[in-house]
Design brief:
The complex is a heterodimer of chains A (about 260) and B (about 240).
Chain A lengths: L2 H16 L15 E5 L7 E7 L2 E12 L10 E8 L14 H16 L9 E3 L3 E13 L4 H14 L2 E8 L2 E10 L7 E8 L2 E4 L3 H6 L2 E7 L5 E7 L6 H19 L5
Parallel strand pairs in A: 4-6
Antiparallel strand pairs in A: 1-2, 2-3, 3-6, 5-6, 7-8, 9-10, 9-11, 11-12
Helix pairs in contact in A: 2-3
Chain B lengths: L26 E5 L7 E7 L2 E11 L13 E8 L14 H14 L12 E10 L4 H15 L9 E8 L2 E4 L3 H6 L2 E8 L4 E11 L1 H37 L1
Parallel strand pairs in B: 4-5
Antiparallel strand pairs in B: 1-2, 2-3, 3-5, 6-7, 6-8, 8-9
Helix pairs in contact in B: 1-2, 2-4
Classes of the chains: A alpha+beta (about 260), B alpha+beta (about 240).
Chain lengths: ~260, ~240
């Protein structure tokens, strides 16, 4: 990004924010329009597409049989991966996951894992031997800012849409049978991201806002208003007061966003 | 595998290693421990043993990564295969990639990056032994390594975690508390500017508990900052004594 243009833009955006306004006319704590569509990929066990303004993220889940981790023999396994697909932005390149896609996947993963969203004990077939493994693959299709919230929302929506095959155990062998059950979900984690621009916090930063922000902070909340994951990013800092302000705002925003999910 | 302790905090409020909830582990820091690096530091915090080395400002390789208006900061956080209970593959894991990124982002706000355009500063962190809270101890050591390299900084970043075990908000979690406790909040601070440069969390906390944890972590950072600055001075005091 050309740094001269960024600085000019930063001034414009900062002046607007000073007046409590934003480039696209939103209030400082407004999200862009959100659309969630579930079950749009028939081959996937679960799927959801989230539109957050022009940001578009598709999450698909696959369910396979596998082995549990040795320290949690009675629990199924969750794996989250994120792809910044090259068609989504001129800044994305083909190749192995870079630190941005790894960070994105790990933030989404932490929100689901730490909120105990999935009832992983119900995914156990034979303790220590056979469990269901849930793969969540987040596919960023169009990048217009705030990939974190869009991806986290798509992942939660896809999990809510996930079906698992029924099974029988015959002579010690696990056999998948016809019919499906819903993936057992206990919580519905929602992640809310703020950008800090010129010492003010704005919710759901768009791409231009992200290009000029000093830092960002993302907070995931569970259904009981507990914080379950946080990640600060970017080359700036937050004051302790800004962090508390973000936590309080995020708690309310998470409640509103959760209403957009069907379960 | 180790047996799980029954209680992380006993009835008298003592933790597994006898600490009070708001007590840090013993910390020992040495500055200038590597002769080839431009700056270096070694930290022991509990059983953590971590080395940090800084190289730069130096030429950028590959050249296309050069920034025209400021220095390029690169950080690598890496764990030795023998640093944990079960051997860790030396190939960088996704966890290490993420931690490298957040360490870089925690240090960059403190450095006058614009003083050295078209150069790179490489910071390498090697965890020789891990005991919980390695990213925080790594930041504390890395900031000293950069200071030791003579790079101008606004403040010396210092980091410490707080968290929750057995319904108590505690400071500076050790390995068992990190794994078995209910939340972990690593935080990095520029103490003179009162600015938080790293904040992560995993686990479950109410907003009120989170506020407590943040405040406790900030207090911990301030305590470590005193030790950190003493250790930096000690390098030069020692040189003086040799000369006399």
């Amino acid at each position: 990004m050309s740094s001269v243009i960024t600085r000019v833009k930063q001034k414009q955006i900062a002046q607007l924010i000073e007046k409590g306004k934003r480039l696209d006319g939103r209030e400082l704590t407004d999200y862009r329009e959100i659309t969630i569509e579930q079950g749009i990929i028939e081959r996937a066990e679960g799927s959801a597409r989230v539109l957050l303004g022009k940001t578009e993220v598709l999450a698909g889940t696959k369910v396979e049989l596998g082995e549990p981790f040795s320290d949690t023999p009675n629990e199924g396994v969750l794996t989250v991966n994120a792809e910044l697909v090259p068609l989504a932005s001129p800044t994305f390149e083909p190749g192995p996951p870079n630190e941005n896609s790894i960070e994105l996947a790990r933030i989404v993963d932490r929100g689901i894992r730490e909120s105990k969203a999935i009832d992983t004990e119900k995914l156990c077939i034979e303790p220590g031997k056979k469990v269901f493994v849930i793969f969540v693959d987040v596919y960023v299709l169009n990048h217009d800012g705030n990939l974190i919230d869009a991806s986290a929302l798509a992942a939660t929506a896809a999990l809510l849409n996930t079906k698992m095959s029924k099974y029988q155990i015959e002579k010690g062998e696990v056999k998948l049978t016809s019919g499906y059950t819903q993936l057992p979900m206990k919580k519905h984690p929602i992640t809310v991201t703020f950008a800090k621009i010129d010492n003010k916090l704005v919710v759901d930063p768009g791409l231009e806002e992200e290009q000029v922000m000093d830092a960002r902070i993302s907070m995931a909340f569970d259904d009981d208003d507990n914080i379950c994951a946080i990640q600060k990013g970017g080359n700036g800092y937050f004051t302790p007061e800004q962090i508390q302000e973000a936590a309080k705002t995020a708690k309310e925003k998470a409640k509103q966003l959760r209403k957009k999910l069907d379960w | 595998m180790n047996d799980k302790p029954e209680k992380l905090i006993d009835k008298k409020g003592a933790r597994l290693d006898g600490r009070k909830p708001d007590e840090l582990r013993p910390i020992k820091i040495d500055v200038g421990v590597l002769s080839n690096a431009d700056g270096s530091a070694y930290i022991e915090q509990g059983k953590n043993k971590i080395l940090a080395g800084a190289y730069g400002p130096r030429e950028v390789h590959p050249k296309h990564l050069e920034l025209q208006d400021r220095m390029l900061l690169r950080c690598r956080y890496h764990m030795a295969p023998f640093s944990v209970q079960e051997r860790k593959s030396p190939a960088p894991s996704r966890r290490e990639v993420e931690i490298s990124k957040v360490i870089r982002e925690s240090l960059e706000p403190s450095i006058f990056m614009e003083y050295y355009p078209r150069t790179a500063l490489d910071v390498f962190v090697e965890v020789l032994q891990a005991d919980g809270g390695t990213r925080c101890a790594s930041i504390t050591a890395a900031a000293l390594a950069i200071a030791d390299a003579g790079i101008p900084m606004r403040d010396i970043v210092v980091a410490c975690a707080a968290g929750k075990v057995e319904d108590t908000v505690v400071l500076d979690l050790m390995d068992e508390e990190d794994k078995l406790g209910s939340a972990d909040v690593p935080l990095a601070l520029m103490p003179n500017l009162n600015a938080v440069t790293l904040l992560q969390m995993d686990g479950i906390l109410t907003v009120e508990e989170f506020e407590q944890a943040v405040n406790l972590a900030i207090e911990g950072c301030k305590k470590i900052s005193v030790i950190q600055k003493e250790s930096l001075k000690a390098k030069y005091v020692d040189v003086k004594e040799v000369e006399e």
